[in-house]
């Protein structure tokens, strides 16, 4: 019996040892583990704690509701810093314009079943602005690797070890609960119909919980001016897209019907903000594979058995046609003759395998192969009717490589349009049809005017730098709107940003991506959902359009007050150019002061 017992003990130890060794094979350091949830899926991480818990003890029990500025963020566990609860929202806009505000809901104790009941807005004559024009979205919190309004960083790793919750992502709702000692922002958008009659419209929003209610009041002044539809805006918005991220996120077949249906909704959001450029890829993984989901080639290069080349445009055509179907149809950019590392991929028909080669722009093989490609591409674009709106896109590279690539493209055909994103270089000025400068590394205003006189377009961009102004999830929202006021002040045609949708692993909850600042890689969310950053960018683009339209109308007016206001507007824009400090309150006031001038001009013209 003892021998049998010893046998089983020995076997048990062997099994335990083996189990332990096997477990070690798949062990993961706890510091590298993703954030865990509870028994149910967490739509956002609830990991923050108040920096001033005593402030909650001073709040009256029950429901608190107030309108609040869209120029700043409000944090989940902090009592909102408002002078008083504001129960009235007053706004002025054009027909066809979207007006935005935030509603904050908070309480020191838990609120259950918070919901909103809207009424139609009416003017003094009984005319209606239907409540169907008002949209409400719950603002969800996403994880950032920098605190709010952070400064003094670049594209390197964050010095902060902790994460920070930032309100940004929109989510539709019927009702929601608010845990005690927290707030929930709600984003309200009022889309004024183009056919609405001018006048002052008023209405209410009743906020109810399971046990309480309060009433908020709305007053919208609709001016006589009409804002064109986004498709007809002159502002050139170029947000680089990665359609493969959509198929990967939803686990659907790339370029299948499900993928294209998702893409169409996704692109509609871009079109609604005046999206101009369709981002396409003539080479595989142009940015050296530093994205979470690679940008793959939309035009396959195929080396045939006889050594000649052919090109498959199937994916390119599908994506361009899809984008055009929702109204993004003014420009196509094909990236790039100069991929990072000069690495090119092609299909070797003899082996059936992909081959990779390095073709530097200065080399004869580059010139030979790109001439073959460009000749074929030109024929294809002419056949599709897209040649005149297509740009060959070149991103920031060593100057000798950039000049060599441009020389090859222009020698192939002088009619090729070229767009370039990078620092200002005088030697590139006359070679580029569309030049996009990195903010703070730009030409001066006079050089932009000179480009315009030649029929060239000029824009600017931000990316993982500079720290300000920018569109990170931790950037004060006022910066997103200020960006387009700066465009107007500098005489730019628009704005570019990488990227529209380069999502990381968990974009709805965690905006961090490698060493880059959270939100750098994307502006919109899965499901074709917007957020604070994207809406503030859109607000600024609308301001840009209004400035353009009002200046054109003022040029035909003899009204002295109009001319005085235009002079005041020009002076106001000029004082935005030397901005360096980016004090949140100042840039918010600068935008609001500019908007007041636009409102006055709108009434007079």
TrEMBL record:
Q: Which UniProt keywords apply?
A: Signal
Endpoints of the signal sequence: 1-18
Determine the domain of life of the protein's source.
Bacteria
Q: Domain Glycoside hydrolase 123 catalytic: where?
A: 240-550
Q: Key word Signal present in the record?
A: yes
Describe the location of the Glycoside hydrolase 123 N-terminal domain by residue ranges: 67-208
Q: Which Pfam families does UniProt cross-reference here?
A: GH123_cat (PF13320), Glyco_hydro_123_N_2 (PF22680)
Q: Say yes or no: keyword Nucleotide-binding present.
A: no
Descriptive protein name: DUF6067 family protein
Q: What is the organism of origin for this protein? A: Danxiaibacter flavus
